[in-house]
């Protein structure tokens, strides 16, 4: 009986007050409308758009019609006298129009008199799945691959979710590609997926291994200028299109982190990319060639993509797109934009954002990424890019993304790729209302205040993460291997220097940070002249990038009047306070959120608050061994011991989400 | 090389700035003066006083002289023209005078013109060691028993330390006494210790097992009115005094928590105590008979000592002292005073304080106890008591007490027993200056400010502990067995109710707390009329004892204007903030404290700050399952999960200090 009581108590914890609604598991994402009992009259073009409206539309009659002259994937919605007409040039356009209408319904917006005209900013809005053939997902924090044994119902939901936010392409496998992905057997599996996603306007793509002609073709070489190699690729591509007629193309990671590439045969990235582009061209396929390259010999990893790719500017076929990560290193909480974006003038480019939070707390931290993308687009004009890719945060967890709020990043990615001028706040508001039925415009005034606070939490979350992990331009000071948690000291014997934090933070008795000015690695020169001079001067360099570009003396005077060391302490502590504040806001929402999701998010926010302390303590105590300066009195002092934190290990691989952080 | 670097870093952590002084291990306690090179001229009575002055006194000539008419253990110190005279009626008095002089030297006070006259408030100032024959120490958090294989050097230091603060008695073994303590072999061991301590004016005492006549005497009974039993005790006592001529007497825990006692034979506490008093009387020995009794059947444990002992008031021999714990339950962070103290008018009584922090964070938390004793003496007039006992916090750890600041409680106990009107602040200041060479009157002004802050930390530490553990009158909600950390839910099947927290906190949907008013257990009636009516009314009951005396409704309005629930949350959070603040103050003292002790104390303060969070989170989340009220927005919200905290166990016994607290 006592045991029963204790169990009952535990159950009560997650919901001490009566929850407003029944439990939800997050599997329906932001598409939580129930099927209608009586279908509205939907007429016109048959297809997925019609089916969706028949199932979910609660309003008056809707006509779906084809109309030439509209942009690819674009649509118009006009309503008058209770009748609505969606017009588009394609099935996909009609589908996007239908989801637009359903979104208006779900967010409670007026639909009496609509005159909407929409078209996507980018033609290609694509997810990159880093899924391996054995079902693991590299940097996947939400379970195993949804493509391993694709469940039709799950694939349908995946298709609907993507289409509802305008995503129209998906790369099914990891950029660290196994050659076997091009085997006939594997292609048949991809065909199954392609068939399930086609109704939702989604084309499939594959990451390929550049050495495939050798590894599965039996050739002696994969030299892109070798006739046998070209023939092998031509045959393989023909086979792919026989199996998947609307196949989208290849994503290629070549000569990067040990992957094979054209340089292995004395050729350039352009030679490799163009060869593939030529064989894909007749099928309307594209090559997305990644610029994520760096070699251990270089004195500044941040310089290298530019150094390798700039000489090739203008040499790529028109169906090659160079896919560049937003920053020059690797998806850190904050990086400056990759200078290639403004430097390459004659080459189509696309940006690769990372939705999966490899460096941002995995599926344990609430970090809403739209503000990071907005920051990127304030430097790189959206129109200068050809497309947008997002490394997916999706797995076979019931809630898809591990953290309910990570769904917002999937959602925001699609919406941003459709329209980069949407504000992070607009997107957060529409996502929150659809996903949690929480609206800042609710008539319930306490609830409306709480919702505004929650929107603010989402908007502030990325900066908070920067603060408690890597403020003031710090980067790459995370744990080895799984990349979760702080390890600024990580530097084991035999590991290449540019995989260790000290290479990046360069802490010493003088100060902290990487001198990338003209007196250092000269990385600043890769930026336009105005930015170059701005970044080059420690007194004009934005403080949020200070240690990225400068080796900053501990006593450097900041704009706040504090020393750099004191400011660093303050930033870390700000991060901790912010993470705790997020929890406070969420806790207050308990009466308005279903028990299950409330409890699951609360548990994650508690981890986040504890992890924030861990990051602060580990980084400050470690850097203090160089700064020899006291932690200011007005910040909370570390409560963990450096030696114990340095011994701590999380026993997980790069395919798992840690159950929690530091546990000493 | 890398490994070496990492190790070097770790070493640096504890001392990022150059430490002011060489490392210290705390073994010298507050007696850190080095031996002088040239001994001063010490004349007069030979003995320990002379030896101590010859070794440590740096001033002018001192004469030690006997003088009749002075109180037992009292002394005078007079100095003029560089010459000092210490006069006393006994060797012990001279010794106390010598230590007084040395204390003035160590605290840098003027000694040019002294005219001091001192005498102890209590004749008996005694430590209770809860040491077992196998070397374990019950509730000992500083290693094993110092008496197991008494090291003469260590015993000498123990003697000096006690004498320097006026302690003149020590009970060598646990009140849960093994009968074997009275075996001839064991008595010979006690004699060795007595011989080593005698030069420091310390008499030894023993805890006895009331069933000894049966267990080691071979008798059929231990009935105190049985002639054979009396004879056995008489013979045993004679033996003891043959071996240890100045033996002090017995400490007895009888009919309590399973220990045998006179009630087993149909006799009363008075029968038992008086029999022992009679056999000790010819030797000038005393019986300290503990009133710590309670039975599982009673509806209020707090009532029971009174119920058992009040009927016996006036029936005890004059060499019996009833030893009563300061509070009616058991050494909680805050209790009202035990009502026996004001109720028993015709019986000599002594108070038993607990220096070892059984319920106050063991040797991990800095909790300075003098303010607790001062609070006790504001209710119980010192003159109403015969003596003061302190349950020792001493073990064979190099620093004696596990926590450097726990030494302050040993120090303060002696000083308070000598003079209960000394303020906690006076005592803290003289201890801190002697122990850490830290003085609030230092000429270095930043240091002097920091020292004042540290004094404040010591003075505030007990209330902080109350706040983060058991505010507003809460008590007995600690973990089972080892008593470290929160377990307000602890209630395993088969454990007697009065050993489980729910018996005490009685949380339910209405409120929290034990109704001890006239409508409840009527415990208030055991207090004098004025206090009774004060405590009985929820509106006049001091808020710091509110749930001790009342079952307080969650929405009860507190003097702050907040509801009781909100106030509870606030108090817990205050405790957390205070614990963090202690760490901040200590960190700032790093340049002024030797590396070793700085690092060791810092590590403990970090545990304390983390433990405070653990207590807050566990208690608030658990009580929230009853209150069904949200945690206020303006306090930090719990970052741990109740279900995980409820599963957490510390795998230690009651003889160990936990390495740290909650580690999820």
Give a brief rundown of this model.
Two copies of one chain form a homodimer. With 664 residues, chain A is of the alpha/beta class.
Q: Got a strand count of chain A?
A: 15
The proportion of strand residues of chain A reads 5-15%
> Into which percent range does the helicity of residues of chain A fall?
25-40%
Could you say which structural class the secondary elements and strand pairing of chain A correspond to? alpha/beta
Largest contact between chains: A-B, 45 and 45 residues
Terminal CA distance of chain A reads: 33 Å
Biggest sheet strand order of chain A reads 6-7-8-9-10-11-12-13
Q: What is the tally of helical segments of chain A? A: 20
Low-confidence stretches of chain A: 1-19
The overall pLDDT of chain A, averaged over residues, is: 95
Radius of gyration of chain A: 25 Å
Shape, per Cα inertia axes of chain A: globular
* Oligomeric category: homodimer
Tell me about the largest β-sheet of chain A: 8 strands, parallel, barrel
